[in-house]
Amino acid sequence: MRGSDNPARPRVSTWIPEVAGILTADQIISTGRAIAAVQQPSGAIGWPDGHVDAWNHVECAMALSACGLRDASRRAYEWLRASQRQDGSWYKLMPPGETDLTTESNHAAYCAVGVWHELLISRDEGFASRMWPVVKCAIDFVLGLQAPGGEIIWRRQADGTAADYALLTGSASMYSSLRCAIMLAEYFAEPQPDWELAAGQLGHAVARHPDAFADKSRFSMDWYYPVLGGPLRGTAAQERLTAGWDTYVVPGLGVRCVSDEPWVTAAETAELAITLEAIGDQARALELLDQIQLLRDPSGAYWTGWQYQTQRHYPNEQSSYTGAAMVLAADTLCGATAASSLFRTVGADDASVLPAADAACGCELLATGKDDLATG
C-alpha cells in the first residue's frame, strides 16, 4: 500500500486500499482520480446527467478520502457545508433549466456518516468541529420526519409538507447515519439521548415491521440494506441474505439492480460486498468484488451496469458514485484506513433496537424488564 511518488499528481496518503489479486493500490488511486476529475469547481460531485444529491456526493467524498485525495474530499465537504439549507436539508443541485425543490431525509442524514468517516481517517478535530453544526442541523431535519412507528418519511415536498410513506432502503441507511451522529455527539461530549431513542425505534421498524414501508422489493437495495445499514445482524441478517440471494445475485456477474431485469450494477455489487463483510462473510464478499471488475474502465472509472443479455453497458455511462462504492468496498475488505470497519461497527443488537411506543407498533419489552425484544 503506497502513495503516489509523482510530484505532479495530487498528494495522497501513505495507506491506500489494496485487495490482493483484485485491485492494486495504484488502481484504487486511479479510481479516486476519476471521481475527482468530475468534481465541479464548487466542490460538488454529481451524477452523469449533471444533478448532485447530498447522499451520493458524500459517498464520493468518503471515497476520495479513503484513497488519499484529501484536498478534493475537503472541498466536497465544504460544498456540503455551504449549500445546506436553514432547515438542515439539501436541495438537489440540478442542471441548468431544471428544478427540484423536494428535500430527502436520507440525503440529509448521510452527512453524519461522511463526517464520522473523515474524522476516523484524518483525526482532524478542526474539520469535525466545523461540520458538527451541519450534522446536528441535518439530524433535526431527519427526525422531524420520523413517524410514530419509528420509520422515517422519505422526503418533504416543495411546499414543505411531508410525503405519505417511508422507504425501507432509505430508513435502513438512516439507521447507520444516526449511529454515526451519536458517535460524533459522544466524541464532542454532547450526548443526544433523543437521537439514541430515535435510532432504536428506527432500527426496530426496519427489523420487525416491513409493512411500514412502501413496497420497493424489486430493487436489490431493499433486500440487503437492512443488513448494510445495521438494523439486522446475526442470524436474522444471514437468513435475509440467503432468502434473496438467488433472486438478486447473478452467478459469475454480480448483483441485479432490480429483480426483473437482466442488468447487474457495480455499485449494488460493491455494497453487497460491504454487507457481507459486515456479517463476517468475507469469502463471498471478495468473490463479488472480483466478478464486478468486468465494469472497470482502464481509466479507473467504472461503468454503472451491464446488460448481460445484450452484452452491453447499461446505462451507457460511468458514474462517480459507482467508483466511490468500489473504493469503499476495497477499503472495507482490506482494512487499509481507520474507517474501514465503519459499516460493521454501526450494526445493531437486540438490546439497541427498541420497540416504538406500544400504540404505534404493538410490540412490548419482555416482562423481565430486560432490553431483549418480544417478537413484533
Overall description:
By secondary structure, this protein is mainly alpha-helical. It folds into two domains: 35-216, Glycosyltransferase (Alpha/alpha barrel), CATH 1.50.10.10; 217-345, no CATH class. The protein is 48% helix and 5% strand. The chain has helices spanning 25-37, 54-66, 70-83, 105-109, 111-122, 125-143, 168-187, 193-208, 220-228, 234-248, 266-278, 282-291, 320-334, 342-345, 358-361; strands at residues 103-104, 155-156, 249-250, 254-256, 263-265, 305-307, 312-313. Strands 3-4-5-6-7 form a five-stranded antiparallel beta sheet. A two-stranded antiparallel ribbon has the order 1-2. The longest helix has 20 residues, at 168-187. It starts with 24 loop residues before the first helix and ends in a 15-residue tail after the last helix.
Layout of SSEs?
Elements: H1 25-37, H2 54-66, H3 70-83, E1 103-104, H4 105-109, H5 111-122, H6 125-143, E2 155-156, H7 168-187, H8 193-208, H9 220-228, H10 234-248, E3 249-250, E4 254-256, E5 263-265, H11 266-278, H12 282-291, E6 305-307, E7 312-313, H13 320-334, H14 342-345, H15 358-361
Antiparallel strand pairs: 1-2, 3-4, 4-5, 5-6, 6-7
Helix pairs in contact: 1-13, 2-3, 2-5, 2-13, 5-6, 5-7, 6-7, 7-8, 7-9, 9-10, 9-11, 11-12, 11-13, 12-13
Low-confidence stretches: 1-13, 366-376
Q: How many extended strands?
A: 7
**How confident is the prediction overall: mean pLDDT?**
92
The class by helix and strand makeup works out as: mainly alpha
- Helical fraction equals 40-55%
Alpha-carbon distance between the two ends: 47 Å
Q: Could you tell me the radius of gyration in angstroms?
A: 20 Å
